Amino acid sequence: MTPRAVAATAAKAVALALFAFALFGPLANLVLWSVAERWYAPFKLPVSYGLRYWEIVFRPTGDAMSSLATSVAIAGLTVLVALLVSVPAGYALARLKLPARTFIMIAFLLPQAFPSVAIYINVARIFYQLGLAGTVTGVVLVHAAHGLVYSVWIAAAAFAAVDRDLELAARNMGASGLRTFATITLPLAAPGIMASAIFVFLESLDEFTGTFFVGVPQVTTLPLLLYSASMGGNYQIASITALILLVPSVLFMMVIERFLRADVLSKVGQ
Amino acid sequence: MADVSLSGVMKGFGGAPAVDRVSFSARPGSLVALLGPSGCGKSTTLRLIAGLETADAGRIVIASREVTELPPAKRGVSMVFQSYALFPHLSVAENIVFGLKVRNVPGSEREARLKRAADVLGLQQLLDRKPSQLSGGQQQRVALGRAIVAETPVCLMDEPLSNLDAQLRVEMRREIRALQRRLGMTMLYVTHDQVEAMTMADQVVLMRNGRVEQDAEPDALYERPASIFAARFVGTPPMNVLPATLIISGPGGTSIMTGAPARDPATLAVGVRPEAVRLGEAGVPATVVAVEYLGADTLIETRVVGEPFVVRVSGRAAATAGETVHLAWDPAAVHWFDLSSERRIN
Amino acid sequence: MTRPSPLALLLVAPALALVAALFLYPLGFSLVAAFTADGTFTLRHFEKAFELYSGDIRFTVFIVLLSTVLIALISIAIAGVLTLSETPWLVAALRWLYRWPLFIPFIVAAQCMRTFLAKNGLMNNTLVAAGVLEPIQAASFLDWRGIVITFVWKQVPFVTLMLAGAMASLDRATIEAGRNLGASRLRVLVEIVLPQVAQTLLVGLVLSFVTMLSVLSVPMMVAGSQPTMLTVDMAFRINAYGDYATANALGVISYAMTAVVAWIYLRHQVRREAGT
Fold this sequence. Notes:
The complex is a heterotrimer of chains A (270), B (346) and C (276). Chain B is an alpha+beta fold. Helix content of chain B is 26%, strand content 32%. In chain B, strand 15 and strand 16 (307-314) form a beta hairpin. Chain C starts with 5 loop residues before the first helix and ends with a helix. Chain C has helices at residues 6-35, 44-84, 88-97, 106-116, 122-129, 144-168, 172-180, 185-214, 217-222, 230-241, 244-275, and strands spanning 36-37, 40-41. The model of chain C has no long low-confidence stretch (mean pLDDT 90). Chain C is built from 11 helices and 2 strands. Chain C is mainly α and 276 residues long. A two-stranded antiparallel ribbon of chain C has the order 1-2.
């Protein structure tokens, strides 16, 4: 290699290393805090390490475990609600004649395309009048509306990616419309719908703003626990909670391409 | 004037080399066709010359200057891509002068060259259009325009006509050839279409499996193919090539050995072009399988000792399927090949 | 269009009802609260909002615009390297690296940055240990810089993912033609690749812009209380004073910011369609 080529390679390696530090540095700090029993200035690294806070978090009777249970329950219910309304809607958008189809598609995007805090403060006020404020039902509804853009758009794309000839073939062999849907269309669209369910689940698990306005003080999800621990200066609990939230997100990032095939992805939003 | 020469050029992408010790050279102002089936390495060879790929070994010289390690911009070659590669966001005029702008050619000079190219290619009315508003043939002209305004001595073309319909292809073939002669460019032209190569080129480099199979002028390629592959790739329908023993052992077989190389017939393959075969009273017996009347001539597909053998006779032939005919030919029309190496003998 | 099927309308009705009840109705509610007092039209709440929060409005616009510009530049750089680099190991490493923050929740990102960017955080400590920084120079980044860094860290992978996908689906021959015509790789990126993926970039940036306008956790956790972003001010008006009128006026101001970028997007879209 010429000296110039060596210098270019070195420059690339250094740039890559800096980039990696910028990406993983913040995550590394999180991991450090989760195992730091004592850490204060001016020490650059924790003064003593240990898993004491992990034990506190995972104590069956602790706040964290009940928050985790609440979070998972809410996310599960949110997926249920979202799929119940979005599978029929996705099918209609992909296969049936709808007036103003584009407007309907955009309508599902709106909850994500508007500054959400301004909406949530009013949802909270309405829910308060209805007695839904501070209830799991209220939080589930808010999360489902927020995740609707994923569930409806991806479901519509998944149905659209199913070869129409397969349905026609089933109908031609004498299957009823409903039977064709249940035995041909739905199973073929299932991976895409599964992906949309994962999206909605994660979206709900990670949701902070809506829960902050609608759920408090009775409903405490993991993000809310993280928030109050962090603002209360308990960085260990906050960091461990953050790590728990991180696991499904990172896992999803690694497997998303397996669920969302390119032919479905290319139809999202159309 | 420019010439292009390659010596011992290699390129692999893991596995068998895509381009394997390729050497040839193009005379200044000539049109050289790189011909071969898909995957034979002809496009990779062209991309190596353009600098879009880097050679693993060997030397590439353009206009007496070694360019093997140079980036594409410094090689002094222009290129026309199979997909035309027009920039969709730029107008026809902007597409054509893009390279001149990059090379800081002064504005007045740019305008002059643009006008010249537009006149030559008949693009005057289309300069403000976007590529998406043009027909396939017009897009092809713009791609040519972009290559010729660069006024590089060497122009590379990668299957430039494969996206056009048959009639337009014939027209563009003539047009490109005329343009190349008029501008005196050295042109390297990649194609898988033997008709295109035979009609346009001064010299044909036939490639197979990454290697040069034969490097010759079109008539030599047709008249003296260097191998069984070359013999069967050029000419429609392809040359009939059979092991010599297959024919000799049959009735009337010994007659074909007139003028054969003095070797063991078991090592020989005999090749006869369909158009060199006559139907007669004596000769090699063959069973007619099918008759295809094409108007000016007729293709008769036969079996000789079970092997397919095609005959081409002018006008309408009086043969019917199932009939037995006798095939004869002039001994001078026979091509002899070595059966194991598949290379030409004599 | 042929006759719409009643079945189709029936099937989308529940989903639309959810949007209407949980988005459109509260949206109307917020507009009414922002523009009326005791049942009559008034701009009083906006006067109050500007009086109290004009600094924060400017601050919010500044943060979101700066973040958007940085996200655009970094995403273009990464996607450009992924598309145009001829160094396979660099491309492979970068492709593996850049996506990590993609699905990390904002609140987790905020917690990471809250520790990483602190005066005694891992960033300063690493810089000091590497000899780049004197210990005395170490300063906390937990202010507007922290918010911008968090936003950029979180949104760059998203925009890069979209952009790199769009670049990958371009006709590679146009890139090679540019190189053949003598353009440097930077020039190919700016003059040939970017104009062809401008649409995708714009969509990614618009979505990021709106997302950043909506995030509450990052400004609350990463920066101190003054100045801060409108989301925090809205939460404060509600939680401290139950002042829905001013909070909703601030909300309408943030809608207006969204409307501006939506308008830019639509104008670009219209011009693009007129062009082809």
